[in-house]
Amino acid sequence: MNADLTKSLTTSASGMDAQTIRLRVIAENLANQDSTGSSPGADPYRRKTVTFENRLDAATGAETVTIKQIGKDTGDLPLRYDPSNPAANAQGYVKLPNVNSFTEMMDMREAQRSYNANLAVMQATRSMLNRTIELLK
Question: Which of 34, 50, 51, 23 is nearest to 94 (CA)?
């Protein structure tokens, strides 16, 4: 198989893997957007973030993308007045997760588009390989 086509497949596959992990993290953020602490003043769920990095695949020589880190967003936690909540502090305020569903939906669309772009490259590469094999018959 042509080395350039192998690199193309490797790069596309790594991009799809990275975006799959990113989508899983986004789903986790959305699932926990209402999760508060369980005791007075306890911190709620913190939004998770994904950091990518480029890496050289030694076997193929292709530049690939991997997940460098799944971190936590250290942004401010919004407060809501709800003195009946078990997580309310002495003043009656509950710390809420720093998850914004609008931001998560935009991240989800971006990840989906990136996944689809990598899939299209993979399909085009596969088509080129098939044509090459047909020519060699």
Answer: 34
